[in-house]
Amino acid sequence: MTTEAETPRLTMSGIVKRFPGTVASDGAELSVRAGEVHCLLGENGAGKSTLMKILAGSYQPDAGEIRLDGEPVVLNSPQAGLAAGIAVIYQELDLIPDLSVAQNLLLGHAPAVGPVVRKKKRLELARAAVARVGGDFPVTATVRDLPIAAQQLTAIARALTADARVIVMDEPSATLGENDLLKVFEVIRSLAAEGRSIIYISHRMDEVMEIGDRATVLRDGRTVGVYDIADTDPGELVSAMIGESRELVRTTQRPRPEGEPLLEIRSVRIPGVIDIAGIDVRPGEVAGLAGLGGAGRTTLLRALFGDTRAARTVRLGGAPLRASSPAAAVRAGLALVPESRKEQGLMLGLSVARNAAVTALGRPPWLLPGRTGRVRTAPVLKDLGVRFASPDQPVGKLSGGNQQKVVLAKWITRGGVRVLLLDEPTRGLDVGAKADLYRQVRELADSGVAVLLASSELNELTANADTIWVLHEGRNVARFDPRNTSENTIAHTVITGVTP
């Protein structure tokens, strides 16, 4: 790491960016040294994404200056950002799904002789980049066919194919299992050791404390503090982010749900993928699904929702559940908040109000009357704390966390939900947004909804779930009561598949 007297690798000074109805960046400051991992923290809407898009050249600031190695630069396009040595790995991956891994990794700078791409050389370079991030998938695979975790590793590997001085990683661990995350941390440390600067955006304090050297905290578009992580308590960072002391999650004190199960998963089986049996969820119960990446949590939820073919014996309210399609599942009273909100949960070009109203009003979203959608969804969006300039704003313009809230809002607005399936619902959400979301989930459970919650954040499951099922290699191997079981015991079972 450089000394204090040396010129920073990157400085962003007095950065201002206005959008209609809001100031996204209000004089923000950021200084990053060569060879350091610098964490950028803040709630959704604090200005992190805007600041990084300005750094990438996607947005142009209304005021302020950017310097690289002491020299002022003008980054007026993404191409200018890349040429300056800035690589950004966005939380919502911007890979081209119908191209291969190798094509994605070297898109725009593939080895070529004149106009002819040297395909063997491209494969060679791609394999080296994937191996560096610990990937074990073929570079000839089509990106669409890869698991989300492998797609995340592909995006990280792509940044390594460019000779970047500054690498921005926006929630790189959001879709990664523990082993994949350890590999990514090794890559980050090796890049920093080479003198590259890493800007690491995360809402997971354990990651920040482990990987970061310093942290800059943004709030309401302004820089409110810069911290040496080794000398800082995580609680101090959280307080700086939200401006007050506030718990991430609170263990519910409501009585434990009893009575007959509402959802009975007697058997859900896909040969060689999952074989799950004996999971029951009562009205008002929040049942957690814990497991490593690939354990089968997402597959189970999608099978229940009719989005994945499986041999199923499932009962809902004492009667067989015959949800052979998502539409049938919705009619039966099931609702799914999917892991990939952009591909499965939202119509990004349509407004916030139309997305939130689409399931409630039962018409194609482009035919929904604007005023009806706004009126119907306004109280739900407010209660969830969704931040937007206008209900007519395209939902694709919102931050990732606010987009996730809109996915939940469309089911709350509709009503009639009997079973809520949540797949990594807090992925990419800040501490305040997580607290808001879990408060809303508990209110839905209190109203009699059965909740099946899949999350890789074990501390969130132990704080919010009434019971936790552990899935391991496609099977449910254990059930725990988080009120009287230590988190370490559950974590051991998640990793090994065996109860200690």
TrEMBL record:
What Pfam families does the record point to?
A: ABC_tran (PF00005)
Q: Does the keyword DNA-binding apply?
A: no
Name of the protein in its database record: Monosaccharide ABC transporter ATP-binding protein (CUT2 family)
| Residue span(s) of domain ABC transporter | 10-245, 249-498
Q: Which GO terms describe its molecular function?
A: ATP binding; ATP hydrolysis activity
Classify the source by domain of life.
Bacteria
PANTHER family attached to this UniProt entry: CARBOHYDRATE TRANSPORT ATP-BINDING PROTEIN MG119-RELATED, GALACTOFURANOSE TRANSPORTER ATP-BINDING PROTEIN YTFR
**Database matches in InterPro entries:** AAA+_ATPase, ABC_carbohydrate_import_ATPase, ABC_transporter-like_ATP-bd, ABC_transporter-like_CS, P-loop_NTPase
Keywords of the record: ATP-binding, Nucleotide-binding, Repeat, Transport
Question: Is Repeat tagged as a keyword?
Answer: yes
